């Protein structure tokens, strides 16, 4: 479903180049849920942005659903849903319904298709009571549900979440975890970056660890436990960082 | 798709109370204040006024008669200076005792004219008082020349006649400065918040990333946002013009007369509206680029504020330039040309060459600035924080 081959991304800062990703290669199968682990500034967001076609690779190739991110970005955008942060990407002065209708239109859904999807999503996320209220009065939890609904309005096969629970309270974070579980059951391919190891342990089939732009581990959680002879992901992550430094 | 985005952007912008306030309410208040200020300026200069004049008690009756016309209300006082300081009179005149007798015996007596301060309306008071005294002085000189069997022409070799050949109406000349100034302010202030919100604001709230993740191409995104800013700027400008027209028509006297005496007023209004809309598009292009450059709304505002201050700079240069002194560059430089064109149009001159230069130069500037904005918007550096 997703194939990243020898990906390098460099950003120019005045006269110097900063390498955000160094020769990263990995693949994600259809229906797999991958947890992306790494410190702040390790390159997680850049990797997700590159997969989402928002930044172009300096070197290497990314193929999503058999499309090249450089050659067919629009085809990929139709199949992918991205949420950067837990409750972002919403227009506060529009109602929840208007936000969903707007993104439905941007993804070329017909008015009827959008209406049906809004009904499904509002039922699925329990949003019916506040569907016609302006977003500016919403709680964090309500915003987060709406942000996820907006991300999947066009029924993408692949969903990317960048630190979705950062800054959320326990209740809102649990709502997110339940929703990811539901999406997993629907067979969606999901990659999400996180600092919370329990969340990754609970939801993911495999993990990818990034340190200073390099992929230092990618594989199933079970294999990782066997290799490290521990089931404490927090300890394993820190050990890998020390080895990677 | 483009229309859907444009309508959504407009709806979102007008739900922002700041936009509504700055687009409609602020121009209304600014225009009202300035229209009434200019109306009072014209009234002050055209209405004849009665001057309260304090004179000393022992002033000669012949001299007092000088000030007995309709222009003066003479108040005798032992201390005219204190009346002037208290603000009870606008001017004071103090003459020596036996003033006329001294003149008749060629002793050159003195007379003192006192005014409050030179920056107030007393400058016109001074002219009226001094004019009355000059006339009196001239009559004495004439009488002396006659007694000496000399003709007046001996000391007055020629006469000066001053004739105004300009058809310029004072009221319209004032409007020619007032309307473009307010238009420029209204368009900048009206479009500013939306411009900051539509690019820098979307980056700040991360809605830009969500937008870029949709299959809509970036040209459609930037075009719909630019058109939204242009539309809001145009609405501010047109609202301003409507407010001016209504206030002049129903709430002023002198400015209304000035406007009704202008030929082809209907055509002039249409041309002014067209120039206003093109200028709003030009401003929208600049504001768009400043917003793309910024990462936050605050940063965007700190870039756009000096540019909008610069936009009112031409009024300072063009105030001293007469309508017949306007040259090619006054119409070819965007920002200058709205002032030049409106100055000319409001004085009743429709010069198609100047109008085409104004519209053409603005359109060229819009294309260049929009092109720069589009190039920036295609680069990841400018669209993502």
TrEMBL record, chain A:
Taxonomically, the superkingdom here is: Bacteria
Q: Where is the signal peptide?
A: none
Q: Which Pfam families match?
A: ABC_tran (PF00005)
Q: Which GO terms describe its molecular function?
A: ATP binding
Domain ABC transporter: from-to ranges: 2-237
Q: Which UniProt keywords apply?
A: ATP-binding, Nucleotide-binding, Transport
Among InterPro entries, the record links this protein to: AAA+_ATPase, ABC_transporter-like_ATP-bd, ABC_transporter-like_CS, ABC_transporter_ATP-binding, P-loop_NTPase
Asked if Transcription is a keyword of the record, the answer is no
Q: Which family does it belong to?
A: Belongs to the ABC transporter superfamily.
This protein is called ATP-binding cassette domain-containing protein
Phylogenetic placement of the source organism: Bacteria, Bacillati, Bacillota, Bacilli, Bacillales
UniProtKB/TrEMBL annotation, chain B:
For this protein, the record's Pfam families field holds: ABC2_membrane_2
Keywords for the protein's UniProt record, in alphabetical order: Membrane, Transmembrane, Transmembrane helix
Where does the sequence pass through the membrane?
20-38, 178-200, 221-245, 265-290, 302-323, 355-377
State if Transcription regulation is listed as a keyword: no
Is the keyword Transmembrane in the record?
Answer: yes
PANTHER family noted in UniProt:
ABC TRANSPORTER PERMEASE (PTHR43471), ABC TRANSPORTER PERMEASE PROTEIN NATB (PTHR43471:SF3)
Protein name (Swiss-Prot/TrEMBL): ABC transporter permease
């Amino acid at each position: 479903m997703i194939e990243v081959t020898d990906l390098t991304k460099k950003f120019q800062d005045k006269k110097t180049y900063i390498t955000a990703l160094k020769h990263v290669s990995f693949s994600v199968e259809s229906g797999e849920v991958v947890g992306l682990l790494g410190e702040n500034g390790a390159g997680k967001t850049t990797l997700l942005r590159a997969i989402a076609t928002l930044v172009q690779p300096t070197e290497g190739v990314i193929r999503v659903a058999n499309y090249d991110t450089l050659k067919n970005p629009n085809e990929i955008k139709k199949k992918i849903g991205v949420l950067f942060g837990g409750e972002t990407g919403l227009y506060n002065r529009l109602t929840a319904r208007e936000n969903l209708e707007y993104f439905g239109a941007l993804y070329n859904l017909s008015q009827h298709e959008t209406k049906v999807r809004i009904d499904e999503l509002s039922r699925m996320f329990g949003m019916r009571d506040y569907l016609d209220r302006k977003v500016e009065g919403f709680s964090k939890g309500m915003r987060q549900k709406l942000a996820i609904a907006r991300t999947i309005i066009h029924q993408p096969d692949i969903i990317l979440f960048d630190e979705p629970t950062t800054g959320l309270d326990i209740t809102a974070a649990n709502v997110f975890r339940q929703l990811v579980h539901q999406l997993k059951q629907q067979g969606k391919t999901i990659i999400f970056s996180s600092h919370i190891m329990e969340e990754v342990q609970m939801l993911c089939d495999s993990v990818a660890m990034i340190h200073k732009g390099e992929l230092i581990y990618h594989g199933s959680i079970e294999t990782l436990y066997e290799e490290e002879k521990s089931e404490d992901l927090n300890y394993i992550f820190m050990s890998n960082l020390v080895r990677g430094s | 798709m483009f229309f859907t985005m444009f309508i959504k952007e407009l709806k979102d912008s007008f739900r922002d109370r700041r936009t509504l306030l700055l687009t409609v309410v602020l121009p209304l208040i600014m225009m009202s204040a300035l229209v009434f200020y200019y109306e009072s300026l014209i009234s002050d200069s055209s209405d004849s006024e009665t001057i309260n004049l304090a004179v000393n008690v022992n002033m000669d009756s012949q001299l007092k008669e000088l000030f007995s016309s309709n222009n003066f209300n003479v108040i005798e006082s032992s201390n005219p200076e204190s009346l002037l300081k208290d603000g009870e009179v606008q001017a004071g005149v103090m003459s020596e005792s036996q003033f006329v007798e001294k003149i008749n015996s060629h002793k050159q007596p003195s007379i003192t004219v006192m005014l409050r301060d030179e920056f107030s309306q007393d400058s016109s008071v001074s002219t009226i008082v001094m004019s009355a005294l000059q006339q009196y002085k001239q009559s004495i000189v004439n009488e002396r020349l006659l007694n000496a069997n000399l003709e007046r022409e001996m000391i007055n070799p020629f006469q000066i006649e001053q004739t105004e050949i300009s058809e310029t109406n004072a009221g319209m000349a004032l409007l020619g400065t007032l309307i473009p100034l307010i238009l420029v302010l209204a368009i900048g202030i009206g479009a500013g918040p939306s411009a900051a919100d539509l690019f820098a604001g979307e980056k700040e709230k991360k809605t830009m990333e969500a937008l870029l993740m949709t299959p809509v191409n970036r040209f459609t995104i930037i075009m719909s946002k630019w058109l939204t800013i242009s539309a809001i700027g145009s609405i501010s400008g047109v609202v301003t013009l409507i407010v001016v027209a209504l206030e002049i028509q129903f709430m002023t006297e002198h400015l209304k007369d000035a406007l009704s005496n202008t030929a082809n007023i209907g055509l002039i209004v249409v041309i002014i509206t067209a120039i206003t809309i093109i200028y709003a598009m030009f401003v929208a292009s600049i504001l768009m680029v400043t917003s793309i450059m910024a990462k936050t709304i605050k940063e965007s505002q700190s870039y756009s504020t000096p540019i909008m201050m610069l936009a009112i700079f031409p009024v300072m240069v063009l105030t001293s330039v007469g309508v017949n002194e306007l040259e090619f560059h006054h119409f070819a430089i965007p920002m200058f040309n709205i002032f030049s064109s409106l100055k000319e149009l409001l004085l009743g001159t429709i010069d198609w060459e100047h109008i085409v230069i104004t519209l053409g130069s603005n359109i060229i500037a819009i294309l260049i600035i929009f092109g720069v904005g589009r190039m920036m918007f295609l680069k990841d550096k400018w669209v993502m924080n």
